[in-house]
Amino acid sequence: MNILESIILGVVQGLTEFIPVSSSGHLELVPKFFNWSEPSTSYITFLHFGTLLALLLYYRKKLLKYVISFVKYLKKESGKEEKADLVVLRNIIIATIPAGILGFFLGRFIESIYDNPENTRMATLFTAVAMIVVGVVFLFSNRLFANNKLNIDKLGANKALFIGIAQALALFRGTSRSGITLLAGQFAGLDRVSAAEFGFLMSIPVTLAAAALGTIDIIQDEGVNLVNNLPVYLAGLLSSFIFGYLAITFMISFLKKRGLRDFGIYRIIFGLIVLVVLL
Q1: Among 237, 211, 173, 10, which residue's Cα sits nearest to residue 219?
Q2: pLDDT reading at 139 higher than 90
Q3: How far apart are CA 143 and CA 126, in angstroms?
């Protein structure tokens, strides 16, 4: 992989991590369209550092507010506003547990399937089908959830757990973490913007863990070659950060006006093209 390819893959990661069209699916399939060498799972997870930084920058004020509310709670100085923030923090922790557990026990196994050259055709097929299936659900989401009005500080613990379990499905490429949490959040009663925001916030600890594991794998795999390849990795990280921030800004603005139908159409078309061209 050269620097240009890494920059392009970083752009793909940044845009598709928060736009619900599956970052992992695109990072697997885009190189195949251009006949590039397929990026390793460790490189893909390393790119999550860029999108993690984008999340932290975009939600910096809200995250700081949550920290202050937690400190006030410890000092027994919390009021009504702080209690609402604590509900959100509780729900983020609850929603993180299923993805953390399943990722720990199944993550490596699933990665080994995708990284095995013998499974290339099967992995491509599975990714394309996941793109299409979730896309079909997107087509009907506007009608299904038209009356949703719940905010994230009103979300119950059981519903937060349900969203967290759904997030774990993003281990399978083509599903989309942001997409599946958007759907699960709306199934739980959240309005579109609240579902997106909760999905973004709850992805922070999971994304941090994934990025850390990817970095460790890269260090172990590259060894002495890491210094020579570092510019390639940093180029991808920087582009994923820049375009990740733009994608978050776009999604929040878009969901205030429109639903997921347009993304559903894109997912279906993209998945069908993959089935025709790559299989």
Answers
A1: 211
A2: yes
A3: 28
> Which is nearest to 48 in space by CA: 28, 23, 19?
23
User: How far is residue 173's CA from residue 23's CA, in Å, rounded to a whole number?
Assistant: 8
Task: Report domain extents, the chain.
Answer: 3-277
3-state secondary structure of 241: helix
Q: Give the helix ranges, DSSP H, for the chain.
A: 3-18, 23-33, 41-46, 48-58, 60-74, 80-115, 120-144, 157-167, 177-187, 192-222, 226-255, 261-277
Contact (CB, 8 A) for 88 and 195: no
pTM summary value: 0.87
- Going along the chain, which residue ranges are E strands? none
Q: Give the torsion sign (CA, 129, 132, 134, 136).
A: negative
Q: Quick one: three-class SS letters along 76-128?
A: CCCCHHHHHHHHHHHHHHHHHHHHHHHHHHHHHHHHHHHHCHHHHHHHHHHHH
Q: How far apart are CA 150 and CA 256, in angstroms?
A: 14
Structure tokens at 154: 């009103």
pLDDT, residue 224, reads 61
Render pLDDT for 189-206 as a digit per residue (tens, 0 to 9). 999 999 999 999 998 988
End-to-end CA distance of the chain: 24
Give residue 263's pLDDT.
Answer: 94
Residue 35: CB partners within 8 Å, gap ≥ 6?
Answer: none
Cβ atoms 55, 200 nearer than 8 A = yes
Q: What is the mean pLDDT of residues 61-77?
A: 92
